[in-house]
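Look over both lines:
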Amino acid sequence: MNFIQVSKMRLVLVFFVVIIAACSPVKKSVKVDHELNQLVELLHGNFSSEAQSKADTAYFNISLVMVPIWKERTDGQWMYVEQAMATKLDKPYRQRVYRLQHPGENTFTSDIYTIKNALSYAGLQNDKTKLQKLSYDSLELKDGCTVTLIKNNDVYSGGTDGKSCPSDLRGAKYASTKITLKKGELVSWDQGFDASDKQVWGATKGGYIFIKK
């Protein structure tokens, strides 16, 4: 084989290498949002208001569980949330899915979704089969109920926007949520108000204090 033939073969090989490289799928690197991950880590786990209920009988002993789901999604961080009376853990009274995002410096949002046939997913945090069945099509966005949190040092605080979150529970016209979160503790104050801004449900003294177990 002479020099010219070898050179031609090399050119052909280079051509095919270039074609193969061009046709190969390029994996886009997903930027890791460490600050959003830090917020998820603070929320992830089992919380309880038992200590508060023992100190003040106006508050119930409530279990709050939050676990990350759908980790493969890139449109925010998703979490399943379940609240139940400590004496009725198998029958949660509130089940939600949160979509957490980081739209600005020190600003975080949580879109709130209800779940169709929610009770069929009770205990999802301990049941992989239920987690696999839960899909985005099972959710309904609570429009106007997004929670916005501002981070100041190591504390996140904020809530819903004014009267934007509708509610018809016990004669309410709208609901509000106020949140304060720090390591090991979540304070959540949910209230419902009627058309004249009179509170018709929710704690009256202040938020529920949930301590992370």
User: Anything to note?
Assistant: The first strand starts at residue 45 and ends at 48. The radius of gyration is 25 Å.
